Amino acid sequence: MSSNIQSIRGMHDFAPGPTELLRVMEGKLIGVLKQYGYQEIRTPVVEKLELFKRSIGEVTDIVEKEMYAFEDRGGDYLALRPEGTASTVRAGIQNGWLHNQQQRLWYMGPFFRRERPQKGRYRQFHQLGVETFGHAGPDMDAELILLSRSIWRVLGLPPEHLELQINTLGDPAARAEHRSKLIEYLNDHHDRLDDDAKSRLESNPLRILDSKNPEVQAVVKSAPLLMDYLDEEALQHFEALKSQLTALSIPFHVNPTLVRGLDYYNRTVFEWVSHSLGAQGTVCAGGRYDGLVEQLGARATPAAGFAIGIERLFSLVEEHMADQAPKLSAYLVALGEGSSAAAFALAERIREQQPTFTVQMNCGGGSIKSQMKRADRSGAQVALILGESELERGLVTVKFLQQDQPQQQLSLDQLVIQITENSLGV
Ligand code: HAM
Fold it and tell me: Would you say residue 118 lies in a domain?
């Protein structure tokens, strides 16, 4: 006997119940984005591999180790998108959304990274991403932080649940100077570095700062700090952001080790971290990437954005959202010859008249007992029973399944009126 085929490790199914809650959560997120005047875009799940190499960076973990990259039958090198910023910039340049314009965009969908799966880290995950173009000032950084904080608020997450960490990475010239000083310093301590650090020394010395090896950490402790090389403008930008956050009473923690794993960032970077999610606590991450549009071939355009990990956010709110699952309004029970066509017609009439009233039809016949059992199992508020005697008299029986209320018999017209006027009480 052949064994059942399983999903790919790190890629998960969502059952109907959690999926409904996920939709409710996503609906709230989209509501906030609309309030702030952001517009949705959709881009392909597959892009040219080159796009991610050129934007995220050749020597990042994502590009070196985690991409689902492949050669297609036409000989093109493609990749499943590991993140959405590169695709948004590509789409913006290609479609002329960026030139001389200001944009506030968002997207939501699946992303793919071949990471080691663990709680909160998957190989297919979902992000809500926000990208803005044409705003150079720290006010946009503040808006992005405010927007993300509004999302926590509408989801009912208490403010102390998520910590805002911010940092500045400065501009390319300062980073280049810091980088060469860092390489110089690490070279001076070459014999104390491990193989991994030695191999990263020239390609990506900043990553050595994240080393878990205690001996390397000891060396890193006294390494030159980027903060000491920042130019006046980048420092002023950061100071202005901090004052805006303070004026808005948004608590933040400046974390000088916050460097992010993607190469395109400059100046402000930020993360919202939950301490109740274990090792994978970053729910939302982003920052400025003022150089990326030019790097991908178009005229320089300031840009900033962030992305929220949908699975991580959902695991924070799922429990207290349980009572927000949408409830089915009615289950339509149809008994006897000829009742099915009448039931379908009634269900359609109700759906047309009252779009928020949800009706599930009994399909496949069955006795009153078995149909009522299905009605109970459906979780509907009422069963609408259309039997032969009701059909003859143009009536429908309304049986309340969740409330202790006597059943009613109404004419079809009365029923539709009550449903449209919301006076059925369900
Ligand atoms: P990122 O930090 O790579 O940034 O990902 C953003 C968020 O996506 C993370 O904080 C996390 O919540 C979620 N996430 C990432 N990888 C996984 C995974 N394997 N499993 C579950 N969740 C995950 C970006 O992707 C940037 N594009 C964000 C951005 C937009 N920066 C500017 N604009």
Answer: yes
Q: Could you tell me if 247 and 346 lie in one domain?
A: no
**383, 328 in Cβ contact below 8 A?**
no
Phi-psi region of 376 (alpha: psi -120 to 50; beta: other; left: phi over 0): alpha
- Tell me if 305 CB under 6 Å of ligand 1: yes
Judge whether 203 lies within some domain: no
Distance 284 CA to ligand 1 centre (A): 7
Mean pLDDT by 10 residues, the chain (426 residues): 90 96 97 98 98 94 95 98 98 96 98 96 98 98 98 94 95 91 94 91 84 89 90 95 97 89 94 91 97 97 98 94 93 92 95 96 95 97 95 95 95 95 87
Label the pairing between strands 162-168 and 253-254: parallel
Residue 76 pLDDT: 98
Cβ 127 under 6 angstroms from ligand 1: yes
Residue 277 Cβ contacting ligand 1 at under 6 Å? no
Smallest CA separation from ligand 1 atom 21, residue: 121
Q: Are residues 410 and 377 in the same domain?
A: yes
What is the domain range of residue 356?
327-421
Establish whether residue 113 lines the binding site of ligand 1, counting it when its CB lies within 6 angstroms of any ligand atom.
yes
Same domain for 389 and 265: no
Closest residue by Cα to atom 13, ligand 1, is: 309
C-alpha–C-alpha distance, residues 255 and 235, integer Å:
15
